Automatic annotation (TrEMBL):
This is mannonate dehydratase. Keywords: Carbohydrate metabolism, Lyase, Magnesium, Metal-binding. Belongs to the mandelate racemase/muconate lactonizing enzyme family. GalD subfamily. InterPro entries: D-mannonate_dehydratase-like (IPR034589), DgoD-like (IPR034593), Enolase-like_C_sf (IPR036849), Enolase-like_N (IPR029017), Enolase_C-like (IPR029065), MAND (IPR034587), Mandel_Rmase/mucon_lact_enz_CS (IPR018110), Mandelate_racemase_C (IPR013342). Pfam families: MR_MLE_C, MR_MLE_N. Residues 129-258 form the Mandelate racemase/muconate lactonizing enzyme C-terminal domain. It comes from Sphingomonas suaedae. Pathway: Carbohydrate metabolism; pentose and glucuronate interconversion. It catalyses: D-mannonate = 2-dehydro-3-deoxy-D-gluconate + H2O. PROSITE patterns: MR_MLE_1. Its EC number is 4.2.1.8.
């Protein structure tokens, strides 16, 4: 039985901050888990180092479900992004170890491949509709079957989803939060023409997606869903904040545009009502922020009963360790929908050498035992943590708004 002899948290900033848990066992096996929580990284690092790791030493690394329950129920204080990211890191590292001991890629332990690869969506964005369409055409040339469209909003200086660099988007870019100015009216006018231009330029054989990023009220989101219906979007994402799950009933009453939500969810309890009432079509919860592979499988199994498919979050603030885990999960889960894929920079890829690959719009986790990701610790040590915050949003009159 492999016993856990040590565990360490490695914080590194190869272009952006990542928090990684590394677990070592007495038989020499090791596992990695992502624990990155953008803008709040050190809170998770401390939760792991100060409160979780002492409880792991000496445990049987093969007892994944038992350790999950121990950390979830045993803390007494449940749920929340910090707790669930820490549990996720432990859980992912233990699955990595189990795969290595078995000599199998993780997706084989999860039931085997249900498909040839995971369809991924790329991010096309630009300051203007023309720039965004140009970027989307480039993604189409690269073989992407699904493309997310985000464009600058006329009259607003900057907005979520529009990057300075076309391919690498990192919103957490300042030592203190930068402030954006927001107008729902201006934004709502800008999205339908973007989709009209995209269908005109890209045709109908490509899936088009859009992220509202929690910035609309339910009735505004309903209107956007209706306005986009003629262009048949694959989904609109996070169209309104989902703390109140009933918000989505209103959107559903008005529009048949598919809805995705859940990148900020941490447990099945955040989406139970949404799934049960079939108020959404895609659940975006992901390995790192929703308790790891063990808990995400539970969410997916519940979603499958209610015709909801997966569409896991995959922004650059999720490390290659999470990306690999998401691909093993996506390859094996029956109700897979799509996986988000924002490419990491070369610096990040060098710190986390990995076996996953992109071919013709699909990704595969590779066949190395476990997750198929390594961490080059000496290289990681050359990129020290750098405080960085996500931006905030204020309406034109100064009122705080969702970003
Ligand atoms: O859909 C997405 O990928 C986004 O909503 C993220 O880029 C999100 O803004 C970041 O993960 C926040 O850290």
């Amino acid at each position: 039985m492999p016993r856990i002899v040590s565990a360490r948290v490695i914080v590194t900033c190869p272009g952006r901050n990542f928090v990684t848990l590394k677990i070592d066992c007495d038989d020499g096996s090791t596992g990695l888990g992502d624990a990155t929580l953008n803008g709040r990284e050190l809170a998770v690092a401390s939760y792991l180092t100060d409160h979780v790791i002492p409880c792991l030493i000496g445990r049987d690394a093969q007892r994944i479900e038992d350790i999950w329950q121990y950390l979830y129920k045993g803390a007494y204080w449940r749920r929340g992004p910090v707790t669930m990211s820490a549990i996720a890191a432990v859980d992912t590292a233990l699955w990595d170890i189990k795969g290595k001991i078995a000599g199998l890629p993780l997706y084989q332990l999860l039931g085997g491949a249900m498909r040839e690869g995971c369809m991924v969506y790329g991010h096309a964005n630009g300051a203007t509709i023309e720039d965004t369409i140009e970027a989307a055409l480039e993604y189409q040339r690269q073989g992407y079957k699904a493309i997310r469209l985000q464009s600058g909003v006329p009259g607003l200086a900057s907005t979520y989803g529009v990057s300075k660099d076309r391919y690498f988007y990192e919103p957490a870019d300042a030592d203190l939060p930068t402030e954006n100015v927001w107008s729902s009216e201006k934004y709502l006018r800008s999205v339908p023409p973007l989709f009209a231009a995209a269908r005109e330029a890209l045709g109908w054989d490509v899936h088009l997606l859009h992220d509202v990023h929690h910035r609309l009220t339910p009735i505004e989101a309903a209107r956007l869903g209706k306005d986009l219906e003629p262009y048949r979007p694959f989904w609109i994402e996070d169209s309104t904040p989902a703390e109140n799950q009933a918000n989505f009933r209103l959107i559903r009453q008005h529009s048949t545009t598919p809805l995705a939500v859940g990148e900020v969810f941490n447990s099945i309890w955040d989406c139970k009502g949404l799934i049960e009432e079939q108020l959404i079509d895609y659940i975006r919860a992901t390995v790192v922020h929703a308790g790891g592979i063990t808990h995400l499988r539970r969410i997916a199994a519940f979603a499958d009963l209610h015709n909801v498919r997966t569409g896991c979050h995959g922004a650059t603030d999720l490390s290659p360790v999470c990306m690999a885990a998401a691909l093993h999960f996506g390859l094996s889960v029956p109700n897979f929908g799509v996986q988000e894929y924002m490419r990491h920079t070369d610096e990040t890829d060098a710190v986390f050498p990995h076996g996953y690959s992109f071919v013709d719009g699909m990704m595969h986790p590779g066949d190395a035992p476990g997750l198929g990701v390594e961490l080059d610790e000496s290289l990681a040590a050359t990129f020290p943590y750098k405080r960085a915050y996500l931006p905030v949003n204020r309406r034109e009159d100064g009122t705080m708004h969702d970003w």
